[in-house]
Design goal:
about 400 residues, alpha+beta, Immunoglobulin-like, 3 domains, five-stranded antiparallel β-sheet, four-stranded mixed β-sheet, 7 helices, 13 strands, about 40% helix, membrane, transmembrane
C-alpha cells in the first residue's frame, strides 16, 4: 500500500520537531517514540523503517536528532504551575476577607483586586502545559507572563509591607519563596519572549504594566492607610448579683459578672486588662460642706470626683483584683468573654458603697494578614452597687 512520504522538520529552540504528510502538518514530536505514535494514528505500521528515505524524509537532522531535555522541561512545568497555584491561593486567602467584609468601599475594592489577581494566576496555570508543550494556543505564553507579572508585583508588595512591621502572620513563610519564584519565572519568560504571537504586543505590555501599577498603588494606599479609619467598637459591662449571707460564717457573698464583647468588625488585641473591686466608706456633711473639700482637692491637683455636697472624706479600699481575659489575646468580631466572680465580705465591714471597675486597653487589628500596630484605645466600664444594712 503506497502512503505519502513523511517529512520530519528540524527541531525548534525547544527540541520539538514538526511532522508533515503530503505537505500538511499532522503533528509534532519530542522523540522517536512520539513520532511513531503520531504515525500509528495515521495508519502507518508500528515497525516502519525510519531510515527508509522513500518513507521518511529527515530535515535538519536524522532519526537520532532529538535535543529535547525532557527532565528540564518537566521541571520547569512543575515549578511554574506550583508557583502560580501557590500565589493564587495566597492572594485569594488575603483578598476574600476584605472583598466580602471590609468596612469601606476602598477596602472592598482592594480585596477584590487581590482575589481577581489570584484568579488570573489560576487561569494561567493550565496554560503552562500548552506553552511548554505543543503550543496549540496562541496566547498561552502571554497569559503565563501576565500571571507571573501580577505575582511579582503583589508578592513583592506583601514582602515589603512585612519587612516594615516584622510581625508574624500565617502567610509570612510564603512571601519570600513566592517572590523569588516570580522573579525567576518572569525573567525566564522575558528571555523566551513569551509575548510573541499576541497581536499588538507593545500595546499589550503597556496595558498590563499600567493596570498592574495602578492596582499596586491602590493596594498600597488602602492597606497602609485606610485601615487606620476603622474604629474599635467594644462593649464592657459589670453587673452585681444579689448578696447572700453565708449560712455558717458571718460572711456576705456578693456575685459580680464581668463581660466584654467585640461589637465592631475588626479584631481587637488586648494589651492589658483587669478588674478591681473597692469598698468605699464616706462621711456625710449635713451642712453641705463637702464642696469646700472638693475645691481643696482640686487645687491640690487630686481627683475630687468622689466628693459631693453632702459627702466628704471618702475612703476607698481595694478588696479584690485580678486579670480578666489576659494580655496578648485576641477578640474577634462578635466574640465575647464572660467571667463570674464572688466577692466575700465580712458582715462587720462598714462600707457604704461597693464599686467594681473593669478596664481593658485594646489595639486594633485591621487585617488578618498583617497585624498593624496602632494607637491603643482605652475602654473603661464601671458599675456601682450599694449594700444596704438590710442586705
Amino acid at each position: 500500500m503506497n502512503r505519502p512520504r513523511v517529512v520530519v522538520g528540524p527541531p525548534d529552540s525547544r527540541g520539538l520537531r514538526e511532522i508533515a504528510v503530503g505537505g500538511k502538518t499532522v503533528g509534532s514530536a519530542w522523540s522517536l517514540r512520539g513520532l511513531r505514535r503520531v504515525l500509528s494514528r495515521l495508519g502507518y505500521p508500528a515497525d516502519l523503517d525510519v531510515e527508509d528515505r522513500s518513507s521518511i524524509l529527515w530535515s535538519g537532522g536524522g532519526s537520532g536528532t532529538w535535543p529535547d531535555r525532557t527532565w528540564w522541561r518537566r521541571s520547569v512545568i512543575t515549578l511554574m504551575m506550583a508557583g502560580l497555584l501557590g500565589s493564587m491561593a495566597l492572594l485569594v486567602a488575603v483578598g476574600m476577607p476584605d472583598a466580602i467584609g471590609a468596612l469601606t468601599f476602598a477596602g472592598r475594592v482592594t480585596g477584590f483586586l487581590f482575589a481577581f489577581a489570584g484568579v488570573v494566576q489560576g487561569v494561567a496555570a493550565p496554560a503552562v502545559l500548552d506553552y511548554w508543550g505543543k503550543r496549540q494556543l496562541k496566547f498561552s505564553g502571554a497569559l503565563i507572563l501576565l500571571g507571573t507579572f501580577v505575582g511579582l508585583a503583589t508578592n513583592g508588595l506583601l514582602l515589603f509591607m512585612w519587612l516594615q512591621e516584622r510581625e508574624y502572620t500565617p502567610y509570612v513563610l510564603t512571601y519570600l519563596p513566592l517572590w523569588c519564584w516570580s522573579l525567576w519565572a518572569f525573567q525566564l519568560l522575558i528571555r523566551k519572549k513569551a509575548w510573541q504571537g499576541v497581536p499588538y504586543p507593545k500595546q499589550f505590555a503597556a496595558g498590563v504594566t499600567v493596570t498592574t501599577l495602578l492596582a499596586t498603588a491602590n493596594l498600597a494606599y488602602s492597606t497602609l492607610y485606610q485601615p487606620t479609619s476603622a474604629p474599635v467598637l467594644f462593649d464592657l459591662n459589670v453587673k452585681f448579683g444579689t448578696p447572700r449571707m453565708d449560712a455558717k460564717q458571718p460572711v456576705i457573698h456578693l456575685p459580680v459578672t464581668f463581660r466584654a464583647r467585640n461589637s465592631g468588625q475588626i479584631p481587637a488585641y488586648i494589651i492589658s486588662d483587669g478588674y478591681w473591686i473597692y469598698g468605699v466608706s464616706v462621711e456625710y456633711s449635713s451642712d453641705g460642706g463637702g464642696l469646700l473639700e472638693w475645691r481643696k482637692t482640686m487645687d491640690a491637683g487630686s481627683d475630687g470626683s468622689k466628693v459631693g455636697r453632702y459627702v466628704k472624706s471618702p475612703t476607698r479600699e481595694a478588696i479584690g483584683a485580678a486579670r480578666f481575659y489576659g494580655p496578648g489575646n485576641w477578640l474577634e468580631p462578635g466574640e465575647q468573654y464572660v467571667q463570674e466572680r464572688v466577692v466575700q465580705l465580712p458582715k462587720s465591714a462598714e462600707y457604704d458603697v461597693i464599686e467594681a471597675d473593669l478596664v481593658m486597653t485594646l489595639m486594633e487589628g485591621p487585617r488578618q494578614d498583617r497585624r498593624g500596630v496602632r494607637d491603643p484605645a482605652l475602654f473603661l466600664a464601671q458599675e456601682r452597687e450599694i449594700l444596704l444594712p438590710s442586705q
